[in-house]
Amino acid sequence: MSTLATTGSAHVAAERIRRPAGKMARDTVAPWLGGDTGMRIRLGHTVAATAERRLDVHEHLYLEGQKQSHVYLVLEGVAGLYKLLPDGRRQIVQVHHAGDIIGMPDIALNHAALNLHSITDVVLCPFPKQHLDKIFTTSPRLIALLFTISLRDQVIFMEKLRSIGRMSARERVAYFLLDIAHRLRMTNSGMGSTFRLPMTQTEIGDATALTSVTISKTMMQLQLDKLIDRRDGNITLCDEEELALMCDYVDRYHDMDTAWFPAS
Questions:
Q1: What domains are defined for the chain?
Q2: pLDDT digits over 175-227, tens only?
Q3: What is the pTM of this model?
Q4: Which end of the chain is more exposed for a tag (fewer CB within 10 A), N or C?
C-alpha cells in the first residue's frame, strides 16, 4: 500500500460554484428511481438551488476530523474515501462513481470519519444535512430509497471486507474488478464486459490491501490466463463467470428490494 503525508498537509479544494445541479442530479440517479417520475421531480426540487462542486484530479473535498455538514451526489467522475494509518499507509475504503451518494454514514456524526479525494476530475452535488428534514417530511419514497441504498451498501461493504480479509491476491483483484463492473452497469445498462478503470496500480492496491507490485503481477497473470484483457486504460472481463466462481462474487447492486416503499 502507498505511503502518504499526514492529512494536515493534504490540499482541500477551494469552493467552486457552477450551475444549479437539479436536472443533472435527476439524470444521474435515474437508474435508481426506475420509472418513478414523481420521485425524480421531488429530487430535482430538493436540489434545485444547490450549486455543483468541482474537484480536479487528486484534490481533497474534506479530511478526517473536519466538520461535516453535507452529503454529496456524484454527478461525474470517480472519487475515493480513504483512511490513513499512523505511519502514513492508506486504505481506500470505497470507490464512488456517478450516481453514488457520499457521506451517508457521516449523517450520524458531527465530524468526517474518512478523507474524500478525487481519483479523476469530479463534479458533485452537495446537499446540507440540515435540509434532510424536508425529505423526511415531504418525500417518504425518496427517503426510503436513500435508506435502502445505504443498507445495500452496508451489505456490499461486508462482502468487500470478506474479500480483503480472507481471499488471495488473485481472488481480491477478481472481486474488485467484478464489483466495479456491476456497479457501473447500474447507471449504464448498455455496458458490456469492457469498462474504463482510471485508477493507478497503487490506488488499486490501496483498495485491495495489496502492494502495487502484487497488483501488477496479478493483473498480468489474469491476462495470461485469458480471464481479463487490459488495453489503453480499459479492462475487459473475458470470462466473467469464471472470475465470479473464483471469488464467490454475488451481484448485490441489482438485488435491491423497492416493493415495500411507501406509496407517496
A1: 7-138 (2.60.120.10), 157-247 (1.10.10.10)
A2: 999 999 999 998 888 899 999 999 999 999 999 999 999 999 999 999 999 99
A3: 0.84
A4: C
